[in-house]
Amino acid sequence: AYLDNGAYLTTVPDGQYLVHITPYDASGALESWHNAKASCDDADPVDVSGDTDVDLVAVAGSEVSGTVTSSNGSVASGQVEFFTDCDAYDDGRPSAQATITGGTYTLFVADDTYLARILPDGGSGAATSWHKAQRSCDDATPVTVEGKTKANLVALAGFPVSGTVSSSNGPVREGYVYFYASCQDYDNRRTEWDKAVRY
């Protein structure tokens, strides 16, 4: 059921249900199960018998905010992704994502330790990288979240690269060019594309 201004309405047969909540707004609630449960196994069931009114409760997240910079200065725009570990990154499962606006970001996650990936927009003076200007997930400096947390992220400095593209058949006039630091990065990007197409 779609949440409209905090309320939902759906139609199901009589029975017992486990209710999953997926917030899309900036309320600070996390994807979770009814009665603020983190997993399906722990979810409190909801009994439906005839017309039923059930107020659902999601897990509240801890606010994480800060600046995003590189040695070239502030990163004005782009995205930040938080992962619990490199396996989650490899599987394309961020715990949270946020837009960088004016060199700052804000997101909500459960208290835990995370690896922060920074995806600056082109021309921002920074490159896609991990916190503390690291090139790979394995080298990323963890960010620990305990309640409201300030985490100023540092991206790897990036520099403009330009040129032309051609083959023996002549100039390539349209398309895209992507730079990868490793084949693993390329494989991860392909996984992200496949998931985006599938869902």
Main features:
199 residues; mainly beta; five-stranded mixed sheet; five-stranded antiparallel sheet; 2 helices; 11% helix
Instruction: Give the helix proportion (percent range).
Output: 10-25%
Q: How many H/I helices? A: 2
Global shape: elongated
Query: Largest sheet, if any?
Result: 5 strands, mixed
Portion in strands? 25-35%
Which runs of at least 5 residues are low in confidence (pLDDT < 50)?
none
Structural class from helices and strands?
mainly beta
Mean residue pLDDT: 91
- Report the order of strands and helices: EEEEEEEHEEEEEEEEEEEH
The radius of gyration is 21 Å
Number of strands: 18
What does this entry look like structurally?
It is a single chain. Helix content is 11%, strand content 33%. A hairpin with a 2-residue loop joins strand 17 and strand 18 (170-171). The mean pLDDT is 91. It is built from two helices and 18 strands. The protein has helices spanning 86-90, 183-198; strands at 15-17, 20-21, 32-33, 46-48, 62-70, 73-74, 77-83, 96-101, 104-109, 112-120, 126-127, 129-130, 143-145, 149-150, 153-154, 156-157, 166-167, 170-171. By secondary structure, the chain is mainly beta. The longest helix is centred in the C-terminal third of the chain and has 16 residues, at 183-198. It starts with 14 loop residues before the first strand and ends with a helix. Strands 5, 6, 9, 14 and 15 form a five-stranded mixed beta sheet that branches. Strands 7, 8, 10, 12 and 13 form a five-stranded antiparallel beta sheet that branches.
